[in-house]
Amino acid sequence: MKNIIKQKILRAVMEFKIGWNLTQEPEFIQKYEKNIYFKIFKLIGAFCLFLVVSGIAREFNKLVFYYVITYSLLYSIYRLVIGINSVIQFILIIFSGKLIVRNSPTNPYYTAFRAVSQVFRNTTGFTVSTGITFALCYELDEILLQEGKEAYFVPNMRNVIRQVINNIK
Predict the structure, then answer these.
(1) DSSP 8-state secondary structure symbol assigned to residue 97
(2) Is there a contact between 40 and 97 (Cβ–Cβ < 8 Å)?
(3) 27: buried, middle or exposed (CB in 10 Å: 19+, 13-18, 0-12)?
């Protein structure tokens, strides 16, 4: 009895790993991810985003400050595009049938383990990128308020979210 339970648990873990290892990004994105210049862009972009969100960038001279803001905004847009592509790729994986386990009496459970691992992977990827983008927009609004201007990004994001919710109702 213990051997059967152990075997089922090992199979569930194996199916979770199979689901986790399914490709998350399309092939053209994977090609760019392997490029050394793109890796440098991601490294510098993440560092610039850290400088902006932490407030360290405010102490730089104006030219460097705007360069850091621009670079972190480009990096945030890149992360948002990656997040949206991961959601699209997840939908394509579901429709392609790669999550379905065949020839097993308990295949609905193993299929569920594969699906849960994909949902977990895509959710974390998407929420991290959108969270970074929101943090950057919030920081940019703080800068605008300090310069005596009106906040732009967060109020507009609120309006878009409200419009979407009202259209759903």
Answers:
(1) T
(2) no
(3) exposed
Q: C-alpha angle with apex 108: 103 to 114, nearest 5 degrees?
A: 95
For 49, residues 6+ apart whose C-beta sits below 8 A from its C-beta are: 72, 75, 76, 132, 136
Give the residue extent of every domain in the chain.
Answer: 2-132
Q: What phi-psi label fits residue 97: left (phi over 0), alpha (psi between -120 and 50 degrees) or beta?
A: left
Residue with tokens 């905004």: 73
Radius of gyration for the chain, computed over Cα atoms and rounded to the nearest angstrom: 21
24-33, 43-52, 61-70: least confidently modelled range = 24-33
The helix (run of H) or strand (run of E) holding residue 111 is helix 107-146
Amino acid occupying residue 47: F
